[in-house]
């Protein structure tokens, strides 16, 4: 009887011990599993992080290229430009250059797009040393307009409104915007950059300054009474660069202000809202079709030819000389056959 009781107790102990061992095993395997899951989760997380890093780099790269799908999404900011493109997201990427600097996905530093656009081309000799025709310009380039400062500082008595716009004039094409000022008013740099030209042109711009900006634009400030910067000097946006005046070919004190992109002037009014003296948006997309829409206008303008009338010359003489008709000359000059053409007058014949 005692022996039987002892056997039962022994069997019970063995059973309990076995159960305990199995349960413990199951618990530790579950714990192991959960560790694996958390490791793989954190692995996934780090991959995601890496991808987003790469994406942010790509975004940066696309500042000029505009090929990402994100770039085609609508954005209210550019509606002013009436373009379908979306401005780039300007990011401050603080990470250090990684190993892929030498791979295919090169991280180009577009914080200074002008370096990418103009390369090593730097001269104070010519206003447009690049000689890039409008047709050969990049299809689209985003310009960062943040930090813009209106080039003329308002003086109490001055009227800083636009006195002449960009566009065709009677005899010459006007490549800038004229802003009224008083002689001696402060003229400041519109963006941060480096002074490329400080020159004097008696029969044209008078005292003028050209600055290349980090955002890829060049600005020109003409008819100054006194330039206050030197070539190669770095300037900040809003820094005093000269005093307004009326030097060169000018009929009164004003600032002749130009935007140039790779040497080609375009209407400053495409970026600057002159009613508020601010930029329409934080960025502007330069395109051949929209920004340089005036190209056809300029070509037509350049084909116009004029003849300066000398003593004794008649309309029929001028028509014969240039192989055209009196009727056509009358139409081009809004005159009639009986109009007296005095010596010194310019008559358009083409
Ligand atoms: Zn002008």
Labels describing this entry:
Glucose Permease (Domain IIA), three-stranded antiparallel beta sheet, binds zinc ion, globular, 350 residues, Membrane-bound Lytic Murein Transglycosylase D, Chain A, alpha+beta, eight-stranded antiparallel beta sheet
Short description:
The protein has 350 residues and is of the alpha+beta class. The chain contains five helices and 19 strands. It is globular.
What does this structure look like?
The chain is an alpha+beta fold and 350 residues long. The protein contains five helices and 19 strands. The protein has helices spanning 2-65, 113-118, 295-302, 315-321, 326-333; strands at 140-144, 162-164, 167-168, 173-174, 177-180, 186-188, 193-201, 206-213, 218-224, 226-227, 234-235, 240-243, 254-261, 264-266, 272-273, 278-279, 283-287, 306-308, 346-348. The strands form six sheets. Strands 2, 5, 7, 8, 9, 11, 13 and 14 form an eight-stranded antiparallel sheet that branches. Strands 6-12-10 form a three-stranded antiparallel sheet, with no helix packed on it. A two-stranded antiparallel sheet has the order 1-17. A hairpin with a 4-residue loop joins strand 7 (193-201) and strand 8 (206-213). Residues 18-84 and 91-110 have low confidence and may be disordered. The protein binds zinc ion. Zinc ion binds at residues 164, 174, 176, 178, 256. The site of zinc ion (ZN) has 5 residues, from loops.
